[in-house]
Amino acid sequence: MPIFKTREGVEIFYKDWGAGQPIVFSHGWPLSADDWDAQMMFFLNHGFRVIAHDRRGHGRSSQVDGGHDMDHYAGDLAELTEHLDLKEAVHVGHSTGGGEVVHYIARHGESRVAKAAIISAVPPLMVKTAANPGGLPKEVFDGLQAQLAAGRSQFYYDLPAGPFYGFNRPGAKVSQALIWNWWRQGMMGGAKAHYDGIVAFSQTDFTEDLKKITVPVLVMHGDDDQIVPYADSAPLSAKLLKNGTLKTYKGFPHGMPTTEAATINADLLAFIKG
Dihedrals φ, ψ of 184, to 5°? Predict the structure, then answer.
């Protein structure tokens, strides 16, 4: 397995397929690079080099006890792009991965980056504060941590079986295979990393990061996202970006890169080539 060791000694698993312009995929919590299967295969077949890593503490990467915060996530990504010497890369992040991408570009610069896309992403800020009155109360995220600590196996079944893919909506076509694949990816990672990761994705304020970015960024979000509510995320991010484009998907769920892969892939390809 391709493993890259960071300067801190953390082993990061990654996939690196094909040749051509690189597209780097950053996955959501608590998943792994495997969550990008539909995108990796599509873009590989369209002549791109596709790269996806397991975030520290997730998937096949080191289950270290520390560094489960956006600074370290962005730092690990920066080291990986340097290790692979990527140039003119397109960075695509889903959910927590969208925060990772935004923080990476703002913190480590745009010299290796051509464009970015954030999908169902957590920026600008998920938690409710005086400055972010539309956010979710901190108690919501405390509850997620409590459920994880009490028994993440059941928790990791209930999330994909319910709100993540919109399978709790009337008339939804439920896929047990998708639910179990989500569960599988989650259970491969470390409980400590996932527990701390809830704070990282909910309490990191990406407002200043978004303002710094000058490369074109496509902001993609479903208006029926039950995990990262639309009104307090995508439109606000698009407004803060210097070169942002908002694309809203009517009725699409949080996990739309999987359930609506054909639409998402076609729109990503048009943006990258545009």
Answer: -60, -50
